[in-house]
Predict the 3D structure of the following.
Amino acid sequence: MTHSIGWIGTGRMGYALVERLLDSGCDVSVYNRTRAKAEPLAASGAKIVDSPAELADRDIVFTMVAGPEDVIEVTLGEKGVLSRDEAAPKIIIDSTTIDPEASATLRRGAERRGTAVLAAPVSGNPKVVKSGKLTSVVSGPRHAFDQARPYLEMYGRKVTYVGATDEARLVKICHNLLLGVLTQTLAEITVLAEKAGVSRADFLAFINDSVMGSTFTRYKTPAFVNLDFEPTFTWHLLRKDFELGLEQGRDLDVPLPASALVHQIVIDGIGRGLGDLDFAALLELAASGAGMELEPEDVEISDGLS
């Protein structure tokens, strides 16, 4: 590959995606706030740096951090990737879920340095990355997308370009609204079936093999059946995205009644101490409302990714 790559943020997702770029032969330099979490990537060929500013001479820099404040800090901050007078990347690709104001601030600051910004949220988690089934949605200047596309395609299965500015961020927010509403619905009907005497494993096997089954329902089935709520996406993160989505709905005069209801259910779950669990624990909240205490079924079941 002809471009040098910088990467900022090696949490669970960032780490897995850097591994894919390295496995594809890319020249990658990496910054993470906690350096020790990035250091194992050096064994695969990554260069670990001590500040985002050290990535300013990279052609393309990816950012995947916790939230809008972090994005602004690692790009426009005192030691950000755009802080050096003598160098700036050609393209910044940001995959963080942030609000329109923060995104506009980033784009304006980058434009002053001659840097194009692509918004490139992803759909999936580290396990999906490893299976090669991750998808991403991208928006920003078309010429920048054309240059970055070969690297984005290393992520997984599909890259979809949706517009010239910030459209990809709204698409990802819509995606996560569907994620929450679908999971709440799946939780409710699974509890209904179990209270009527049908095991969760049998009920979800039927759903997954029907026209209603999907990659997502199959992927969440082991968590529902065996009550494994090790977090891939927490309630706190889901709440943040619902609030961004509901704000967009208000701004655009689009009623979102189902999303608004699930938002309140998510807040309820956080208040009950579920916030740090995987959002699949919506199942336990639904069961509690039905007066049921669930037990793991201890069934070996595929997540549909292998």
Notes: The CA atoms of residues 91 and 163 lie 16 Å apart. Strands lie at 4-8, 27-31, 47-48, 60-63, 91-94, 116-119, 122-123, 135-139, 158-163. The chain has a mean pLDDT of 96.
